[in-house]
Amino acid sequence: MAPSGNVRHAAGSEPARGGAPARAVTRTLSDDPLGGTVRRTVLPSGLRVLTEAIPAMRSVSFGIWVAVGSRDETGPQAGAAHFLEHLLFKGTKKRSALDISAEIEAVGGETNAFTTKEYTCYYARVLDEDLPLAIDVMCDAVADSVLEPADVETERGVILEEIAMHDDEPGDEVHDLFARAVYGDHPLGRLISGTEETVTPMSRRQIQSFYRRRYTPPQIVIAAAGNLDHAVVVKLVRQALRGTPLDADPAAPAPHRAATPAVRTKPAATVVEPKETEQAHVILGCPGIDRTDERRFALGVLNNVLGGGMSSRLFQEIRERRGLAYSVYSYASQYADSGLFAVYAGCAPGKVDEVLELTRAELARVAAEGITEAELARGKGMSKGSFVLGLEDTGSRMSRLAKGELLYGDLMPVDELLTRVDAVTLDDVNALAAELLGRPMSLAVVGPFDEGAFSVSR
Question: What whole-number distance in Å separates Cα of residue 445 and Cα of residue 58?
Fold first, then answer.
């Protein structure tokens, strides 16, 4: 996304360049014909509050997003961000773990959280009339968790079970194996959950230190979407944070994560995890582009054409025509300073060679010959449709607000995004395909094979 520039300033005054506002600063983003009114307030502490008012809804999704993920950990800290995600629902000075869950569930709401490589999110979805409760409970949990030693030990056991469960899911494990093949020891190549070796010795003091150093107002974005009033949300947030560690001295919001220097990736490699499975799981791919690269819209179209749906080339060739795999798709992952592009397939072990041969042939064909005008139109239609249809609920709209602010520093209007997709040309896609698909490919395999069973060129 790129800055839209479509902003009207409202109450308050902008802070001096590089400085913190003396009081809350609010601005209204352009009203979106495909949504509601989006407003943004920067509190004196540097914490940001964004809302999208959608009067036709009877629910509200409320999220607290922190610009901290697994890539922000040192080696010995691996898994700290995810560990903390578990612990913040275990109790505060005002509420027990049961109180936190029971208060939301008593009004039919739901809460959850997730950790990624670059951010962590805590969210609730409730009826509009119960938004004040959700704000109070969620702000209390994120801002003022006590991290009791007994809870640390309980959740350590839960996380170790989660890691073991993940190891029993080869379809998930192969993605982590591929990331490690591309990024090596870089934090982007590590498991978000950490490993048994890092989680087992992690102390409460380490987690507490990570919590208080990383969870600061300039690193936090609060987003809400649904039937709400922006001014009321801001007021309730300030009330809920009063007297907590997030009720901090004036500061400027942290800038979004820098895109430079680019992450150094490993030379193309083959990694195999021997495992007695009924199905083999394979990923063939390479380093991609970062999330601010102007070619990301062309990449979305290319991904749709190659393996983004049932009409894609890989799905048609490998599943529909030959019946070699039940699941086959391509995907792109994008970070502030790097990215991945890959093809996944799950198939019988005896069919891996043929699946890989067909996949390599199709990637080489698109790199050399490009895609067709018909495929370009279909790929653009898929990109636009999936984006707009993905905005049909308050949760996805809340996520869009937070990610725009946290990852890009601004929110691209829906119409502008659709225009950017429409502007993608055949030359744009084919030039990207020639560059991206011509790169050396890494291979990750989980299945009943010896470690030396595959080579990069096989």
Answer: 46
User: How confident is the prediction along the chain (458 residues), in pLDDT tens digits per residue?
Assistant: 333 333 333 333 334 334 555 677 877 765 565 568 999 999 999 999 999 999 999 999 999 999 999 999 998 999 999 999 999 999 999 999 999 999 999 999 999 999 999 999 999 999 999 999 999 999 999 999 999 999 999 999 999 999 999 888 999 999 999 999 999 999 999 999 999 999 999 999 999 999 999 999 999 999 999 999 999 999 999 999 999 999 999 999 999 887 667 789 999 999 999 999 999 999 999 999 999 999 999 999 999 999 999 999 999 999 999 999 999 999 999 999 999 999 999 999 999 999 999 999 999 999 999 999 999 999 999 999 999 998 889 999 999 999 999 999 989 988 999 999 999 999 999 999 999 999 999 999 999 998 887 865 44
Phi, psi (5° rounding) for residue 105? -70, -25
* Helical axes 204-214 vs 149-167, angle rounded to 10°: 90
- Give me 160's structure tokens: 């170790």
Sorted by where each starts, the structural domains of the chain and their CATH numbers stand as 7-241 (3.30.830.10), 270-447 (3.30.830.10)
Pairing of strands 59-66, 7-9: unpaired
85 is catalytic: yes
Give bridge partners of residue 124 from the DSSP assignment.
Answer: 62, 111
Q: How many CB atoms lie within 10 A of CB 241?
A: 24
286, 267 in Cβ contact below 8 A?
no
Give Cα 35 to chain centroid, integer Å. 22
Length, in residues, of the chain: 458
Rounded to an integer, what distance in angstroms lies between the CA atom of residue 261 and that of residue 372? 35
Given the residues 14, 52, 73, 85, select the one marked as catalytic: 85
Q: How far apart are CA 45 and CA 27, in angstroms?
A: 17
State how far the Cα of 226 lies from the Cα of 392, in Å rounded to an integer: 11
Distances (CA, A) of 54 to 93, 134, 189: 34, 18, 39
The order of strands in the sheet holding 325-334 is 270-274, 442-447, 280-287, 339-347, 325-334
Nearest-5° Cα angle at 227, 225 to 228: 80
How far apart are the C-alpha atoms of 302 and 371, rounded to whole Å?
8
